[in-house]
Amino acid sequence: MIRNTVSAFALSALMATPAMAQEVWISNERDNTISIIDVPTMEVVETIKVGARPRGIMFSHDYSVAYLCASDDSTIQVIDVATRQILHNLPSGENPETFALHPDNRHIWISNEDDNITSVLDVVDRVIVAQIPVGVEPEGKAINHAGTIAITTSETTNMAHWIDTETHAIFHNSLVGSRPRHAEFTSDDARLFVSAEIGGGLHVFDTGTFEELAEIRFEIPDVHPHDVQPVGFRLTEDMTRAYVALGPANRIAVVDIESYEVLGYHLVGRRVWHMAMSDDEKLLFTTNGVSGDVTIIDLERGEPVRTVKVGRFPWGAAYRPAER
Amino acid sequence: MTQQSLIIPTVLASFVASTAQANIEVPIAYLEMEVERPPVLTNLDPIPDDLGRMGAALGLADNATTGGFMGHDYSLSDLVVPLGEDWLEAARAVLADHRIVVVNAPTDALLALADLPEAEGALIFNASAESEALREEECRANVLHTMPSYAMRADALMQFLVTRRWSDLVMITGQRPADLEFATALRHSATKFGARIRAEKDWDTDSDMRRNIGQEFPVFTQDFPGHHVLLVADEAGDFGPYLEFNAWEPRPVAGSAGARPDAWSDRVEAYGAAQLQLRFKRLAERPMGAVDYAAWAAVRSVGEAVTRLNSNDAGAIRDYLLGDAFELAAFKGAAITYRDWNGQMRQPMPVATRTALVAMTPMPGFLHEVSTLDTLGRDRLETACRAFD
Fold first, then answer.
1. What is the pTM of this model?
2. Considering B243, B261, B279, which residue would you say is the last residue of a domain?
């Protein structure tokens, strides 16, 4: 009895070490791996082998598991955060690229980029419960915090489709610039942001009227406008800032989302795709596809502080806070 | 019966409710002239019968998906005019009920079509002819070119060679008109970008070399002066593919064979191209070629214009395509647009071998005050085209 307690305690202490610290998980598109960055040390502490062409990556709302789009295996992999083991594969429809988790922590909305479909996956019953026809090459996924609206952006159709999460019906389509890549709602759900990679802008919509409030443009000295290609972005909880990855411009733009003014740029690695932000919103982790690394930006100091080598073509990033 | 007719409009309405436009029909024609292909040394690489046509078909499918949300109804009718049949009669018939026509035909046939009275006010896309004159002295206001010109292809290759400092070149040219025209473009490009073609030879024998390439080519190339790269202008792919490893000097081959600059290559996979390649393969059951890409880009350009304009008027579409507002994401890393002085589509161009992408051009460092894409081909100040003034 006593022995049991001791060993259980020892075991939990051992397990706790990797599970306690803050981490950022990076999907490496051309290496079929996830690199786990330990935030306090800013070093890769583990590399996990996963399915083919891993792209979208996120944690469940309780941070117990990570979900990964293994695009070329046409599956969503579920990875146990504590043990780093792949628990099982979920059905996803063909070629899942990105996804979003509903606030109910149960339904994942998936972009199936080769099939012009948005799939809705129930992670408890492990079945696809709905498939919704959308435009060509669906990509960006977002669900509002109220859980009532899902957005799919279609890269070739150049639209953001507004989908009712109850009825699964598209109730509005917003035309945006060429090749929309990513979408996010503000924390009060009043505005929707959509990036257009080839169009070069960040579009802002009023979620009540669907009216376009602004298109934020980026002009960087000595960078050709062709190379300014907004992809991933993050909005801060207090709705003051957006951080926007600009692809081959190799920069993260800092935008004031009250005035829609671009405040400045951080130079990062080559071809920056996506990013994760720490829960205190002090650190930003950007995936730099071509240079194969992650730039860590200290948002308080307003400068990049570290470059971390990861696998080939890092694509997605997800942040996990320290266990409390 | 009654129930069905009630349900269908409801479903449709839910798709288009937000945009709430009346249905607009956008009929597009794909018109191809069958041409006699010259015999080539190898029979292993037949040119697909549906080259170009499948590209247009994929463009239509892409448009139709978007159109479903917009209330825009795209259709594509394709016609291949067989050898010996009356091209202009077919063209007239197509133009009688289509104002937008994608053409896959040689220069002369294209010009004859564009000059028909029925073609006035129509919007014609050249998806195959590469001749320079078609974009310059012989340009037509009703013709836009999605296929790059020989000059653009030559400039793409030369930018790559000069970037690698491989500026000493020799060239072997076939004797068919396309070979001569591409060779002329390569000479002009070499001068433009500071490379040097140190010697040239014409390949004019008609012997079948399947058995004796290894004897023939080393001797033929033995007296070339020192060079970095062996250029070949052999657009039909007759002898060019056999030059690599069979020349006297072990030098890379580029041009029509070896590292080839083109509108498209099935080796392009970045910039989201993997998805386009896959969509095409699913549809056509073969890789996508340059003419397919040009036809796809033409149909997609129309789709993008109709989406933004909410109009099917050929004149309005043409003006929009030539204006500043138009841009199309076209899987080559930069948006494609059209040159307003001659209707040529600006585009990045891959230089690729049969197995891998070598480079995507324009190469970094080739700068331009308006668009780096205008470092490929003749620029505004050099143009002889006046039809767009």
1. 0.88
2. B261
